[in-house]
Specification:
Class I SAM-dependent methyltransferase, six-stranded mixed sheet, 10 strands, Methyltransf_11, two-stranded antiparallel sheet, methyltransferase activity, about 280 residues
């Protein structure tokens, strides 16, 4: 989905089937080397799913955060990403969020992780998830209003600006799901194994690796010169200590409260049990 000047999105279907703005046929190679589910983040998702057995994963990609102890149906339009799903996970169905090929109330719960910013029609996708789900719908996304908290806003403002345009406002997700929704802050652990950009808040050297940047689709929308300037400045500042003088305390900070948020929405007339599940731990 490519953002226009008004912030709307255009429905694009890339050669490999990618239905959003990012062409995963071009940037998806090696994705799983950098994007592995993080146990801390995974815990939030498992608690939000509760006792649901039949789970739909929309925009499933290579299968990060899919619970292996549930019956999961995965939907993913990108052939490149479907091919990277490990053998332990079910094959993903080639379909898109705004047109899910399932009957009403098919699933106990549904989930979408790092996916909604790719959808060409957010409202339709959320409505479809609600339609096919009789229980909780959970969305793991980033709050665009909080992206500026990262040191990347200093070193790569162009990339942060792209991300802020692509990610929908958290309230737009809440409104699209209807019913009762909780917005849960998800702090990012220092050694996060899921390499989205903020995951390297205390490990800046990792973002000198082209593969680490390629595994974050926002970098594919900035001019090539932006990446070059970013890498040159970061390398120089790491070598002469400038980065550490300004941000060095992040290297030992256990967690970072950045933009990551989990939206947990129960059906209309019901309440989410997420916080009860947390309290019961």
């Amino acid at each position: 989905m490519t953002a226009n000047e008004e912030g709307d999105h255009v429905n694009i279907r890339h050669e490999d089937g990618s239905a959003g703005d990012a062409n995963y046929g071009a940037i998806g190679e090696g994705y799983t080397a950098y994007r592995q589910p993080d146990p801390h983040i995974e815990g939030f998702i498992r608690r939000a799913l509760g006792c649901a057995r039949l789970v739909l994963n929309v925009g499933a990609g290579a299968g990060s955060y899919e619970p292996v102890d549930r019956e999961v149906t995965a939907v993913e339009p990108s052939a490149s990403m479907r091919a990277q799903r490990p053998p332990r996970l079910p094959a993903a169905i080639d379909a898109v969020a705004q047109s899910l090929p399932f009957a009403d109330d098919t699933f106990d719960a549904s989930m979408a992780t790092f996916s909604v910013h790719q959808w060409p029609d957010l409202s339709a996708g959320l409505s479809e998830m609600r339609r096919v789900t009789r229980g909780v719908v959970l969305i793991l996304s980033c709050d665009p209003a909080r992206l500026g908290r990262s040191w990347l806003a200093d070193y790569a403002p162009e990339m942060i600006e792209v991300e802020a345009r692509r990610y929908p406002a958290i309230q737009a997700i809440v409104d699209g799901l209807g019913g009762h929704a909780e917005v849960v802050p998800v702090e990012i652990p220092l050694h996060c194994t899921d390499g989205f950009s903020e995951a390297y808040y205390g490990r800046p050297e990792r973002l000198l690796e082209p593969g680490a940047r390629r595994a974050n689709s926002a970098w594919s929308f900035v001019e090539p010169g932006v990446q070059t300037r970013f890498a040159e400045r970061l390398r120089r500042d790491l070598e002469d200590g400038a980065w550490d003088r300004k941000y060095g305390s992040l290297r030992t900070q256990p967690t970072f409260d950045g933009s990551l948020r989990l939206i947990v929405a129960a059906p209309e007339g019901e309440s989410s049990t997420f916080h009860q599940a947390v309290a019961a731990r």
